[in-house]
């Protein structure tokens, strides 16, 4: 497993180290000790899967407030997504900056999303499946969100979103949005 920090402190891309032979390959997707050594939170309390019918489906930007803030490990197991994180830690030098990466079934890359980050993804193909390992169970009262198209954040999506839930489309824009990740 190869852990590569992103430009946003505390976040990382996780790539598999394939052990291949004539049968195929074997790879470790998660290792508690390697996460600890890389300064990443290794807790997994919940595992989720999301299926999306159409390319251009956008989910997010979501986060949860403390004490229910989530750390996530996000992997695309079918199709392709553009995965985006936004740093919501006011003390961070990367506060309100975003980072995006293409996660696909073929590249097998995962995004490590630290607590106090917002997360979203846009499907790039039809029939996309995304799996999440999450450090904290979903807590509806702690859920918050930012608008995916907020000009104050300025995310450059690779294709135009065509399907966004009413909830995700109605999150407020900054500065009206209360960024209270902690």
UniProtKB/TrEMBL annotation:
Reaction(s) the record says it catalyses: dTDP-4-dehydro-6-deoxy-alpha-D-glucose = dTDP-4-dehydro-beta-L-rhamnose
Enzyme class of the recorded protein, top EC level: isomerase
A matching Pfam family: dTDP_sugar_isom
Keyword Isomerase: yes
Keyword vocabulary terms for this entry: Isomerase
Record keyword Isomerase present: yes
InterPro entries the UniProt entry points to: RmlC-like, RmlC-like_jellyroll, RmlC_Cupin_sf
Pathway note: Carbohydrate biosynthesis; dTDP-L-rhamnose biosynthesis
MF annotations from Gene Ontology: dTDP-4-dehydrorhamnose 3,5-epimerase activity
Domain of life: Bacteria
Enzyme Commission number, as recorded: 5.1.3.13
Role: Catalyzes the epimerization of the C3' and C5'positions of dTDP-6-deoxy-D-xylo-4-hexulose, forming dTDP-6-deoxy-L-lyxo-4-hexulose.
Family listed: Belongs to the dTDP-4-dehydrorhamnose 3,5-epimerase family.
Matching NCBIfam families: rmlC
PANTHER family, A to Z: DTDP-6-DEOXY-D-GLUCOSE-3,5 EPIMERASE, THYMIDINE DIPHOSPHO-4-KETO-RHAMNOSE 3,5-EPIMERASE
Record text on subunit structure and interactions: Homodimer.
Protein name, as recorded: dTDP-4-dehydrorhamnose 3,5-epimerase
Natural source organism: Pseudonocardia alaniniphila
Gene: rfbC
């Amino acid at each position: 497993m190869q852990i590569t920090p992103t430009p946003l402190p505390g976040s990382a891309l996780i790539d598999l180290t394939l052990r291949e032979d004539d049968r195929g390959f074997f790879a470790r997707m998660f290792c508690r000790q390697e996460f600890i050594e890389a300064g990443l939170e290794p807790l997994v309390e919940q595992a989720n899967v999301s299926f999306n019918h159409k390319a251009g489906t956008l989910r997010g930007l979501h986060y949860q407030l403390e004490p229910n803030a989530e750390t996530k490990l996000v992997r695309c197991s079918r199709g392709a997504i553009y995965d985006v994180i936004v740093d919501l830690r006011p003390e961070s030098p990367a506060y309100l900056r975003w980072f995006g990466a293409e996660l696909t079934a073929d590249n097998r890359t995962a995004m490590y999303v630290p607590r106090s980050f917002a997360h979203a993804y846009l499907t790039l193909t039809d029939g996309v499946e995304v799996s999440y390992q999450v450090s904290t169970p979903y807590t509806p009262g702690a859920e918050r969100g930012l608008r995916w198209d907020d000009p104050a954040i300025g995310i450059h999506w690779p294709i135009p979103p065509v399907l966004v839930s009413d909830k995700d489309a109605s999150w407020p824009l900054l500065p009206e949005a209360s960024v209270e990740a902690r």
